[in-house]
Write a structure and sequence with these properties.
Chain A is mainly α and 226 residues long. Chain A is 85% helix and 0% strand. Chain B folds into 2 domains: 127 residues, no CATH class; 104 residues, no CATH class. Classes of the chains: A mainly alpha (226), B mainly alpha (260).
Chain lengths: 226, 260
């Protein structure tokens, strides 16, 4: 395929992904809203708007601000298809994002390339289906047992620190290859948490990404990283 | 009317919503798979991507399942199942449900028996967490073009592009590492301390050892399983430490509260 033709085909594919993504996302929004709407109609159980808005006002400020940060932060990492899928299927920070990063690493492709785009889409789609199957199977088969496991004083820490295990394992690969540019963003993250320990990871991530990129650029400038 | 939470209607809604998500995932995967073949990506790489992503998903998905079951004591099994299979995430759904129930003087540990309260919880969960679905269709293309453009320009110097790209990834991972080192959870159940750092370090060491073995003996198949093995092994270490060490050590956190 000639370079010009390939670029045109790439553009066509990416444009199509955006068109499909918009249609599916609007569809998903309607499908999700059909749950409270359908329930309210079916059971004639319409809650007082005032009460709902009062609760919403408490969560919206945090959730919607985080949503803006997440869309800006994750979109370049996940690719177009991965972004549309991830924001509908949820669990981005603890699952879809590390899954997409791992897939690109394993397939030896880069983000913001079409190869990266298709690999993240396949990985995130696969992860979404696997999650659905595991949760559905678990709900149907293990519901009598798992609350006991979850509440077991011995096993509970393992579930509580699953993200430490996940990002420790994922981080090890990256840190081994890029240890020079890894230390600074971790130190920045730790210092920020000293002053704001409950800061949401979505916001903290924004700070550590800026620190990591800025740190890397300075080190490249100083020839510390080549 | 106490069984409305697990009624036929709720199960039908679960099938409809989760079915939609599965079909969407399959749709995007098929399109990406076809395009990947046109790009010359080998079938083996694509298969490995699917398997590796599915394996990667097991540990976090079990954790999500555990949350579904915890929430089920107040909300029944179906609503948490729907919410955490779709847009939801571990923290948001719990906070949204708790905030709404507090308005009624209830809490997440008590079973909801009033359909209006249940309906209110669903509205808050759905509207509260759906904002990103308004933003993504409007801004995704714009953000991709801007960032993509920046990367393309920097590709003139591919070393620079590689380092900047790696730094952005490391920035993401660094946030979670920092939270594991000295973060504080909003509910106090997973504050950083001895156990979080022990789990983090175990996962890193096990992953590096496995990668070393794979590299030394050219074990391509094992490499694919290195990440999920490391995650589960680190969780295993976490359980072993809980059993073997005194509680004063395992429950130590920087923030003074007792950890999980």
């Amino acid at each position: 395929m000639s370079k010009g033709l390939k670029t045109k085909t790439e553009r066509q594919y990416t444009d199509k992904v955006h068109t499909w993504g918009r249609i599916w996302t609007v569809g998903a929004l309607l499908v999700l809203l059909s749950l409270p709407f359908g329930f309210s109609v079916y059971y004639s159980a319409w809650p007082e708007a005032k009460t709902v808005f009062s609760a919403l006002s408490k969560v919206i400020l945090i959730y919607w601000t985080t949503a803006v940060i997440e869309v800006i932060t994750y979109t370049p990492m996940l690719g177009a298809g991965g972004t549309y899928l991830s924001f509908v299927t949820g669990n981005i920070t603890n699952l879809k994002l590390p899954c997409g990063l791992n897939a690109m690493e394993k397939a030896n492709v880069k983000p913001n390339t079409e190869e990266g785009e298709v690999i993240t889409t396949i990985a995130i789609g696969s992860s979404a289906i696997a999650t659905t199957i595991i949760i559905a199977a678990g709900v149907l088969l293990f519901s009598p047992v798992l609350p006991v496991l979850r509440e077991s004083p011995t096993l509970r820490p393992a579930f509580s620190y699953v993200t430490s295990a996940l990002f420790g394992a994922l981080g090890a690969s990256y840190f081994r290859k890029h240890w020079k540019i890894s230390i600074f963003p971790i130190v920045v993250g730790v210092i920020v948490l000293l002053f704001a320990p409950t800061l949401g990871v979505g916001t903290l991530m924004f700070i550590t990404i800026v620190a990591a990129v800025a740190g890397a650029l300075v080190m490249i400038k100083l020839n510390f990283v080549k | 009317m106490s069984d409305f939470k697990e009624s036929g209607f709720m199960y039908a809604m679960a099938a409809f919503i989760i079915g939609f998500i599965v079909i969407e995932s399959v749709f995007f995967m098929v399109k990406a798979w076809k395009r990947a073949k046109q790009l010359g990506i080998s079938k083996e790489t694509l298969k490995n991507t699917v398997i590796s992503a599915a394996l990667f998903t097991i540990a976090p998905a079990i954790s999500i399942l555990a949350t579904v079951l915890v929430l089920s004591s107040a909300l029944g099994i179906v609503l948490p199942w729907i919410r955490l299979s779709v847009i939801g995430n571990l923290a948001y759904e719990t906070v949204a449900a708790s905030t709404m129930l507090e308005q009624f003087g209830a809490n997440i540990n008590i079973e909801v028996t009033d359909p209006e309260q249940f309906s209110a919880v669903m509205w808050v969960m759905t509207v509260g967490t759906s904002f990103a679905l308004f933003l993504v269709p409007i801004f995704c293309k714009f953000i991709q073009k801007k960032i993509g453009g920046m990367v393309s320009k920097s590709e003139k110097n591919s070393k620079l592009a590689d380092n900047v790209s790696a730094a952005a990834f490391i920035g993401i991972i660094a946030a979670f590492i920092a939270v594991s080192i000295n973060g504080k959870s909003s509910d106090g159940t997973s504050d950083a301390g001895f156990m979080s750092i022990a789990t983090l370090v175990s996962a890193m060491v096990i992953m590096l050892v496995l990668e070393g073995i794979c590299h030394k003996y050219s074990l391509k198949k094992l490499e694919m399983f290195a990440l999920p093995i490391s995650i589960f092994a680190a969780m295993g270490v976490c359980i072993l430490l809980t059993v073997a060490l005194p509680e004063s050590v395992t429950s130590f956190t920087w923030w003074g509260g007792a950890a999980a």
